[in-house]
């Protein structure tokens, strides 16, 4: 039997920030952050969730609909929640998230801006949008609302989501598809928008982490649970196709035993084999369920992440240590200051985030995503039929 300690997307859903033994303090970078609760004070920008746009009748580009978790969220989590429980979920709206805002090489920005993304700048959705020829990622549902849909589509993905429900009320994958279905049936997403549509489904392992922690005994039959999770993904993909989406990109699982949440115990020195075996099983079953459909592409994040963390692409000085380190979660603070360490502090002589593959305990940096998406771009273009 496998002893599985799978991935950690939101380890801190259940608790307030805790103080770390190595705790160090840095000058607060975000004037909006303290005192708790934080306020949002970012100006609107292309990488914030966009307000409802003016319809463009003659738009004939792709529409993109995005589902899943933190790999794909472009601003669906609340930025003004008031409970401590929600604090870890609000972190993508606060520095140090967005530290490289506006810097395509992923280096430190002089105008940092947290945009609701789990990265120092862009996430996977932004790169897929570029591949499809969009100027920017489609607006987040949180801001756009239910009345209308931008021509470029909509992002429903929310950090912490998965196939199974989450304690903090983050909508599951199928609940996100329910919302999409309602917008299709109300006409807010017109049939014309679906005629040239591509969906991205990013389910990156939250289910395994949460069940492992909350119900260790229920985890006895790991393969049965993996079958349930993959079946849930497959069901949502089928529903999207039935609702009229033309092509669906579905991420497989990266080697989640190499995520910093899993390598932390070994001082970020080595991957956790059990987690990686679990990911392999997940990917094998996912491929069996989805691999033969002409209108579905399983995006091989596993191969791309593996090549990078194993060093075979020759990229990144730091491939297992995250740029942002914390006992609880990146971005955690208390009344006295920061409870995390971040590699973006030049005065400490640390290399910048562009030298790190991982940004936080789970999610790649902007430079990390650029390197991953470079590897899968060709297959996505061929599948969708763009040059
Ligand atoms: C948070 O923002 C939403 C709209 O985005 C608003 O409806 C709600 O009242 C706000 N809550 C607080 C506590 O400010
Ligand atoms: C998988 O799903 C089935 C049907 O919903 C359920 O009975 C079973 O307990 C689930 N197994 C695991 C390990 O979660």
Automatic annotation (TrEMBL):
One of its GO terms (molecular function) is hydrolase activity, acting on ester bonds. GO terms for biological process: lipid metabolic process. The keyword Hydrolase applies. Keywords: Hydrolase, Lipid metabolism, Signal. It holds the Pfam family Lipase_GDSL. The keyword Signal applies. Residues 1-20 form the signal peptide. Belongs to the 'GDSL' lipolytic enzyme family. This is GDSL esterase/lipase. It comes from Triticum aestivum.
